[in-house]
């Protein structure tokens, strides 16, 4: 291609990272990484962001905070719908409630999850079952039940998005050899990262892109115990190549990217958000 022709094909990208008018559902969105991601979606132009978690009050409080953000698009709103993602009947009810507000969904962030810490010799079966159930089975069921809404207005040129929250614990070796080891959590996150790759192939032809994020340590309620066991925030920050832990905008920015036109050709991938920690040490 000649230089003149190549220059003539250049395009203007005024909205390459914008999500104007998009409809999103964020499971586990009342706190932590889900809430930060939801704030990014709203501030990038999303028109409706449904926040769901088990506790109705937590959903309402999260939506009140989101709806107070000054950078929302005019008329943009966060809507609370409490639901227990571990139960198929509750996921189906969630879908039915979302349908009362919209005839389609553009973005699904499958973020609901839990962890359990205990030593290998005493790690109970019910803990492994609970973690695998919520962190893997519920993620599959949520994506499956929302697929018709995700497909409703999706096209190959403007695909819908599914973002699965994994973890670096599903890539490197997680917490082991201590009284708060997370065997089930690490295994569950490895499972959903591979589920992401399988669903990317399954749903891509339907106009639904499926990607995952793998956060490292972010100060949050779920991570606080493990952070403490590893010496606290500052000690962990000092072991990172960029000398800090994750911040809200780190999650929000990656999620917005994966949901935007900028990522229209990204499918089945996992974006690690750990500041290079695994590269520097080979472990968490």
Description:
The chain has 284 residues and is an alpha/beta fold. It has a single domain (18-279), classed as Rossmann fold, CATH 3.40.50.720. 42% of the residues lie in helices and 13% in strands. It has 10 helices and 7 strands. It has a 7-stranded parallel β-sheet with strand order 3-2-1-4-5-6-7, sandwiched between helices. Helix 2 crosses helix 9 (248-259), helix 4 packs parallel to helix 5 (125-151) and helix 5 (125-151) runs parallel beside helix 6 (183-203). The mean pLDDT is 90.
Instruction: Give the tally of structural domains.
Output: 1
- Name the CATH superfamily assignment: NAD(P)-binding Rossmann-like Domain
Task: Summarize the biggest pleated sheet.
Answer: 7 strands, parallel
The low-confidence runs, each spanning 5 or more residues with pLDDT under 50, are none
The coarse overall form would be globular
Q: What name does the CATH topology carry?
A: Rossmann fold
Distance N terminus to C terminus? 46 Å
What proportion strand?
Answer: 5-15%
Give a count of the beta strands, DSSP E runs of length 2 or more. 7
What strand order characterises the main sheet?
3-2-1-4-5-6-7
Pfam family, one: adh_short_C2
GO molecular function, one term: oxidoreductase activity
InterPro entries: NAD(P)-bd_dom_sf, Sc_DH/Rdtase_CS, SDR_fam, Sec_Metab_Biosynth_SDR
Protein name: Gluconate 5-dehydrogenase
């Amino acid at each position: 291609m000649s230089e003149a022709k190549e220059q003539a094909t250049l395009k203007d990208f005024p909205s390459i990272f914008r999500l104007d008018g998009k409809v999103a559902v964020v499971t586990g969105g009342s706190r932590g990484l889900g809430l930060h991601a939801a704030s990014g979606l709203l501030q990038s132009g999303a028109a409706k962001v449904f926040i769901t978690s088990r506790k109705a009050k937590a959903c309402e409080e999260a939506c009140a905070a989101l709806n107070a953000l000054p950078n929302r698009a005019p008329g943009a709103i966060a809507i609370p719908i409490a639901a227990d993602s571990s139960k198929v009947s509750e996921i189906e009810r969630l879908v039915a409630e979302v349908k009362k507000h919209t005839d389609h969904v553009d973005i699904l962030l499958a973020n609901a999850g839990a962890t359990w810490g205990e030593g290998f010799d005493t790690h109970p079966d019910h803990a492994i079952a609970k973690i695998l159930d919520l962190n893997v089975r519920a993620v599959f069921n949520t994506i499956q039940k929302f697929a018709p809404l995700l497909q409703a207005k999706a096209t190959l040129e403007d695909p819908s998005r599914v973002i699965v929250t994994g973890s670096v614990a599903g890539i490197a070796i997680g917490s082991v050899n201590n009284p708060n080891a997370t065997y089930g959590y690490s295994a569950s996150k490895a499972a959903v990262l591979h589920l992401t790759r399988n669903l990317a192939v399954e749903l891509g032809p339907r106009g639904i892109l499926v990607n995952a994020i793998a956060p490292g340590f972010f100060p949050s309620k779920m991570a606080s115990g493990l952070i403490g066991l590893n010496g606290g925030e500052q000690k962990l920050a000092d072991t990172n190549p960029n000398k800090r832990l994750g911040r809200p905008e780190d999650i929000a920015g990656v999620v917005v990217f994966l949901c935007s036109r900028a990522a229209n050709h990204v499918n089945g991938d996992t974006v690690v958000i750990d500041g290079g920690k695994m590269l520097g040490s080979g472990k968490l």
